[in-house]
């Protein structure tokens, strides 16, 4: 037996991570990270101003599951079981090719903090918005989202990567004690002092089911791995099992992924480059590109980005493939491309692929409604114009950042895109605002009047005109 001492008040939560580290939260306002081999404290995290009530790891679900999943299929050997468990763990825990367990902590100080304890004892961000103590936090099974339950009667949804607020679920009329995720990340169940459990659709942010039955406060809830049952326990001394049958009309039905072009161009001629280089470097525009192409409404899905070889090569090596997205490189010489990017393809299997056919990538990706939410074409000019001029039927919309100069200075351009004004029309700001809001980005960007250096730029959305 080993004793790990250091906390000066009650320990409220203990988690054993996948990197052989133990995480403990305490009423002494700190979180400690311990080496499970020798019990040594290797990190003390101090940021909360009151008790730490709960903590959660981005790998909680995959550590619970190991080599198994909702199908119940058992590995055929201990070796296969170990290999599959490791693969599942690395899929969630790997960030930039390295194992990084993120942690979120909840406190009586009404706040949460997002951490990467293996990298720093400083938090990634402080998460504020709850009006009373935060009792419970949980990562979605894929680690991309965080749910928080508070005594202010609400549940809040946050981005699990950067801690940014996304949405609030309201419906409970008393403090919310806990939440639990379905294995596919589509649904969230919460339990409350108001004697009820509520099931929420994460994509639409709407209540899809009320689960009554308890006669007093409901303290704990958990979701079965197969997604069909929920168990809860409460002050009434009862443990209840619910077989969930969500009415189809209440559930969001996966739609075919929309195909979009996203590009920044100098108006009015829509120039996008000179001698293979972009003539500007606009931080806000780059942040817009990253978040629009990365964020999804459905946390269980990812977006696809399709680009030519030259566009991929123009991305600094440390940033490629583009993180949080499925990357496709288009090339005329498949063998050469596979040879040149052999190491990157092996390291990023599943997130980086090579193809010779734009139509095949779009066609195959459009069929994968269970994993793919949107498809973005991100360059270069040849691919943009090939689609705009010859295959406009395959494009649903164009996200165009309209760039202009604030001075009389001229900018040379030798590469242009062609958006036919007879075919495409700019939508009103309301439609783009609604789109950004659905992804939790409405507050992140101002659509008009952005300025950096000698450039000003507006974010716009274009759709095909209806005759």
From TrEMBL:
SMART domains listed in its UniProt record: WD40
EC class (word): oxidoreductase
Pfam families associated with the record: DHFR_1, WD40
Record-linked SUPFAM superfamilies: Dihydrofolate reductase-like (SSF53597), Quinoprotein alcohol dehydrogenase-like (SSF50998)
Record-linked InterPro entries: DHFR-like_dom_sf, DHFR_CS, DHFR_dom, Quinoprotein_ADH-like_sf, WD40/YVTN_repeat-like_dom_sf, WD40_PAC1, WD40_repeat_CS, WD40_rpt
Record key words, sorted: NADP, Nucleus, One-carbon metabolism, Oxidoreductase, Repeat, WD repeat
Oxidoreductase recorded as keyword: yes
Subcellular location: Nucleus, Nucleolus
GO CC annotations, alphabetized: nucleolus
EC number: 1.5.1.3
The keyword Hydrolase is annotated on this UniProt entry: no
WD repeat start-end pairs: 4-44, 127-168, 169-210, 211-252
Gene Ontology biological-process annotations: one-carbon metabolic process; ribosomal large subunit assembly; tetrahydrofolate biosynthetic process
An example molecular function term from Gene Ontology annotations: dihydrofolate reductase activity
Primary site of residence: nucleus
Annotated ranges, domain DHFR: 258-464
Family the UniProt entry places it in: Belongs to the dihydrofolate reductase family.
Record-given protein name: dihydrofolate reductase
Organism, scientific name: Ambrosiozyma monospora (Yeast)
Taxonomic lineage of the native organism: Eukaryota, Fungi, Dikarya, Ascomycota, Saccharomycotina
């Amino acid at each position: 037996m080993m004793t790990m001492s250091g906390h000066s008040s009650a320990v409220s939560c203990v988690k054993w991570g996948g990197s052989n580290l133990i995480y403990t939260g305490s009423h002494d306002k700190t979180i400690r990270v311990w080496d499970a081999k020798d019990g040594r404290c290797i990190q003390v995290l101090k940021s909360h101003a009151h008790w730490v009530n709960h903590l959660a790891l981005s790998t909680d679900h995959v550590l619970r599951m190991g080599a198994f999943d909702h199908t119940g299929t058992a590995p055929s050997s201990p070796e296969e079981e170990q290999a599959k468990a490791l693969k599942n763990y690395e899929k969630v825990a790997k960030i930039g090719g390295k194992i990084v367990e993120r942690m979120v902590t909840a406190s009586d100080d009404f706040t949460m903090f997002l951490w990467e304890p293996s990298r720093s004892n400083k938090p990634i961000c402080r998460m504020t918005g709850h009006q009373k103590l935060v009792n419970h936090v949980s990562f979605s099974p894929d680690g991309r989202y965080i749910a928080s339950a508070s005594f202010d009667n609400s549940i809040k949804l946050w981005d699990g990567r950067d801690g940014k607020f996304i949405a609030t679920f309201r419906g409970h009329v008393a403090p919310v004690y806990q939440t639990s995720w379905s294995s596919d990340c589509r649904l969230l169940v919460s339990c409350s002092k108001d004697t009820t459990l509520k099931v929420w659709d994460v994509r639409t942010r709407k209540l899809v089911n009320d689960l009554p039955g308890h006669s007093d406060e409901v303290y704990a809830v958990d979701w079965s791995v197969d997604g069909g049952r929920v168990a809860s326990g409460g002050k009434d001394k009862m443990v209840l099992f619910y077989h969930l049958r969500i009415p189809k009309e209440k559930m969001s039905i996966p739609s075919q992924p929309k195909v979009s072009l996203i590009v920044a161009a100098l108006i009015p001629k829509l120039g996008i480059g000179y001698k293979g280089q972009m003539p500007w470097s606009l931080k806000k525009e780059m942040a817009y590109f990253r978040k629009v192409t990365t964020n999804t409404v459905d946390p269980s899905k990812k977006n696809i980005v399709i680009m030519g070889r030259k566009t991929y090569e123009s991305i600094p090596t440390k940033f490629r493939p583009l993180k949080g997205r499925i990357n496709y490189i288009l090339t005329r010489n498949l063998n050469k491309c596979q040879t040149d990017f052999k190491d990157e393809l092996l390291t990023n299997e599943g997130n980086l692929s090579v193809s010779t056919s734009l139509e095949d990538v779009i066609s195959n990706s459009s069929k994968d409604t269970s994993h793919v939410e949107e498809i973005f074409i991100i360059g270069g000019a040849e691919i943009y114009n090939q689609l705009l001029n010859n295959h406009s039927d395959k494009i649903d919309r164009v996200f165009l950042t309209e760039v202009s100069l604030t001075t009389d200075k001229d900018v040379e351009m030798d590469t242009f895109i062609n958006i036919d004004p007879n075919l495409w029309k700019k939508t009103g700001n309301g439609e783009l605002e609604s789109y950004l809001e659905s992804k939790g980005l409405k507050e992140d960007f101002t659509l008009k009047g952005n300025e950096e250096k000698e450039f000003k730029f507006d974010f716009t959305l274009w759709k095909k005109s209806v005759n």
